[in-house]
């Protein structure tokens, strides 16, 4: 049941939940919108608007055969604040013929962490957390079909009944998927809803994102959206 259940068990047992004493905010959609973010276009632009969804300030993304995202550069010390936490909502995942192929490389929701290389831009590496369709098992991962420098990790699959909060140890995920520690220095966080390869439609809502200290199972809720554990959209460990 994830970090919410862990926190409840700690409270029930009388144990003190792990504290979160360091936070690096990535976004403030309600207060700042997309100020400080930059657009990245791959095809015609996906529509992004700040809205309120189920009581949560959110960035609403709607793709109609389009592919564009937004990214923001951040200074993060992954030794101190390794956990990226955010909330998202997908009511109807995009159906892809094969997410491991270029023809199927579309997702209703993606959150990227981009690690630039100090000396060679073509060696930039990317962790790509995705909300996949119901045919993909949560925890599955594979190289991006366009470049081996990006790895895809399916956190969710299938429709959701409400907001879901994720908490990922970015440093640990990078080491598992790339076989080495992540490079130090300035990085970027990106979000994208795209439907160009499948020429279809996709829709998602993104809550605020932040890096924090502690483990993924530390107390959650700092991203401003209420997490629910939806049937059919379970999050899995890396397989």
Structure, described:
This protein is mainly beta and 239 residues long. It has a single domain (3-212), classed as Sandwich (Jelly Rolls), CATH 2.60.120. The chain has 3 helices and 13 strands, in the order H-E-H-E-E-E-E-E-E-E-E-E-E-H-E-E. It has helices spanning 3-13, 29-32, 170-178, and strands at 23-25, 38-41, 47-53, 56-64, 67-74, 83-89, 107-115, 125-132, 141-143, 150-157, 164-169, 187-194, 201-212. The strands form 2 sheets. Strands 2-5-12-7-8-10-9 form a 7-stranded mixed β-sheet. Strands 1, 3, 4, 6, 11 and 13 form a 6-stranded antiparallel β-sheet that branches. The longest helix is centred in the N-terminal third of the chain and has 11 residues, at 3-13. It is globular and about 40 Å long. Mean pLDDT is 83; it is low at 1-17 and 227-234.
List the helices and strands and how they pair.
Blueprint: H1 3-13, E1 23-25, H2 29-32, E2 38-41, E3 47-53, E4 56-64, E5 67-74, E6 83-89, E7 107-115, E8 125-132, E9 141-143, E10 150-157, E11 164-169, H3 170-178, E12 187-194, E13 201-212
Parallel strand pairs: 8-10
Antiparallel strand pairs: 1-13, 2-5, 3-4, 4-13, 5-12, 6-11, 6-13, 7-8, 7-12, 9-10
């Amino acid at each position: 049941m994830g970090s919410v259940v862990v926190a409840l068990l700690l409270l029930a047992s009388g144990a003190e939940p792990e504290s979160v004493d360091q936070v690096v905010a990535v976004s403030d959609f309600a207060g700042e919108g997309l100020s400080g973010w930059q657009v990245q276009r791959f095809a015609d632009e996906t529509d992004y608007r700040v809205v309120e969804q189920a009581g949560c300030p959110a960035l609403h993304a709607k793709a109609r055969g389009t592919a564009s995202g937004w990214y923001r550069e951040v200074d993060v010390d992954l030794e101190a604040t390794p956990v990226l936490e955010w909330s998202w909502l997908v009511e109807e995942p995009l159906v892809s013929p094969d997410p491991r192929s270029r023809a199927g490389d579309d997702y209703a929701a993606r959150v990227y962490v981009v690690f630039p290389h100090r000396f060679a831009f073509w060696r930039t590496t990317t962790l790509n957390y995705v909300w996949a369709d119901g045919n993909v098992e949560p925890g599955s991962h594979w190289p991006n079909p366009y470049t081996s420098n990006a790895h895809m990790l399916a956190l969710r699959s299938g429709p959701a009944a409400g907001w879901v909060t994720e908490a990922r140890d970015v440093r640990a995920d990078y080491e598992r998927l790339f076989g080495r520690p992540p490079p130090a220095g300035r990085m970027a966080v990106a979000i994208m809803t795209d439907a160009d390869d499948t020429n279809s439609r996709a829709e998602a809502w993104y809550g605020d994102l932040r890096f924090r200290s502690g483990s993924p199972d530390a107390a959650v809720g700092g991203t401003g959206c209420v997490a629910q554990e939806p049937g059919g959209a379970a999050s899995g460990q890396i397989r």
